[in-house]
């Protein structure tokens, strides 16, 4: 059974209890769980043939309405998410420099239903080399690799590069330029037009030139539908915006027409599997 499925099953037992209000939020915990998995994959650092280190301290930024709904349960939800990260890391043979912690923070620039995940590597004072994380909880005082800066190398390990390779990711998910300065976030491209999609009443902002929809946790927007392929289709924004099937099993239907590629307009209805996606765009 997959890690995300186990996480969902654990939460199901809590829906009628502590987490009853959590599931009224636009952002669902399983979406955050998938994003944490991708954050581990995107920031994995290979120390040697047997050890790949991933971040152990995560911040999930939420819109004001979502934060207000989720924050009363942040402790228990954070523990559940941290446990999911540990299970996923064990499955992928990842290791940590210290205990795993997941925090929730409010971000004024995010709309309801949108979120952003950032991460860093924090080394506990007793960590001499990368190893499995200790109990979930606040990281003990110690030397931090720090928001994109690599942790201190253990004895005998090859030296770490001074900056990530071109195209790599710095701390909290931002590119790390030479000199160690972390630039501010750029949540959306500049320009007049805004793009987003709506799935079952939830809005997903399109903040890049392309957006992949699919059932895999690697997709930009994950759709939990057995009729949806792992990487089902890709939306490209522009003048005009288009959608392209990525070799899916069941194909796509756009505005009632079964197709492999189509031009999108504001309000276009896209059907993947049994899920309907509404494409939206608006001038600044």
Task: Characterize the structure shown.
Helix content is 18%, strand content 27%. The chain has a six-stranded antiparallel sheet, with no helix packed on it. The relative contact order is 0.11. It has 284 residues and is an alpha+beta fold. The protein has helices spanning 3-12, 29-42, 64-70, 74-92, and strands spanning 45-48, 51-53, 57-62, 94-95, 101-106, 115-120, 193-199, 202-205, 210-214, 221-222, 233-236, 241-245, 252-254, 257-259, 261-264, 269-272, 275-283. The termini are far apart. It is globular and about 55 Å long. A hairpin with a 2-residue loop joins β1 (45-48) and β2.
Strand content: 25-35%
The CATH architecture designation of the largest domain is 2-Layer Sandwich
Spatial separation of the terminal alpha carbons: 44 Å
Mean pLDDT figure = 74
The counted number of beta strands is: 17
CATH superfamily of the largest domain: FhaA, phosphopeptide-binding domain (DUF3662)
Q: What pattern of helices and strands is seen along the backbone?
A: HHEEEHHEEEEEEEEEEEEEE
Q: Give start-end ranges of low-pLDDT stretches.
A: 15-25, 127-190
Principal-axis shape: globular
Separate helix tally: 4
Helix and strand composition category: alpha+beta
Radius of gyration: 20 Å
Q: How many domains make up the coordinates? A: 2
Strand order of the largest sheet: 8-7-17-16-13-14
In CATH, the topology of the largest domain is named hypothetical protein PF0899 fold
Helix content: 10-25%
